[in-house]
Amino acid sequence: MRKQYRTPALAAAAALMAVAGLSACGSEGNGLAEKSGKEVSEEAGKALKDVTSFQMQMESEQDGATFSIDLTMDRDGNCVGKIDQGEQGTAEIVKQGDKVWMKPDQKFWETQGGANGVAAYELFKGKYIAGTTQDPMLQGMAGSCDLKALQQDINSDDDGTTWSDPKEGEVDGKNVVTIKGTSEEDEEETTMHVAAEGTAYPVQIVSVEGGAETTLGFGKFDEGVPDDVPSEDESFDISKLEQAAGS
């Protein structure tokens, strides 16, 4: 189960953020429209590296299957949100420090756990599974909340990417500049939009590679992560789940 979470959520996000060439618009804004595509990429990457928290929304589609995440995370390892694996179900997550709460839906339990999953759903339905980052079942999900790891990967492998000059535009009602990047090494095409006013935060990144299209959206920069956690009445300790699953 751990790989189910970590590979699509963390790896895909890190890979896209690693080539963070983004954009902003308008000579009356923050000046990104007057810069080269590479300079826009560098400024947007720096902006992402400097944030203490943000919301990241990702949707990936390949061969008709979709995968999405919506996570708000900070540098301290706190996180709240949801991971949707399409036909394999969804799971909500809350993480504060080394404590983790996960609430899978019925489809998740059934597809991930087989017969044991069906029994676990009946036992824990509507409840969060509570544990720590040391619990094998929760490690992968917790890893999706690693903002520091994402920031370390920004601009780490973009030397082979060629960026277009920025163009002014609008995305989700926000003024942006847009640049497009191509990488001959992995035949990836990336379109990035960055705020044209204020800090050069990325607004959206769209990447197409090998028939898969992934869209990343960013927001709520430096607004922190809600510190509400599930109550004891809303939770079951992970040890009870392990007993039910025959661990």
Automatic annotation (TrEMBL):
The lineage of its organism: Bacteria, Bacillati, Actinomycetota, Actinomycetes, Kitasatosporales. Residues 224-236 have a biased composition (Acidic residues). Keywords: Signal. PROSITE patterns: PROKAR_LIPOPROTEIN. It comes from the Bacteria. Residues 156-190, 219-247 are annotated as: Disordered. This is Lipoprotein. It comes from Streptomyces chumphonensis. Residues 1-24 form the signal peptide.
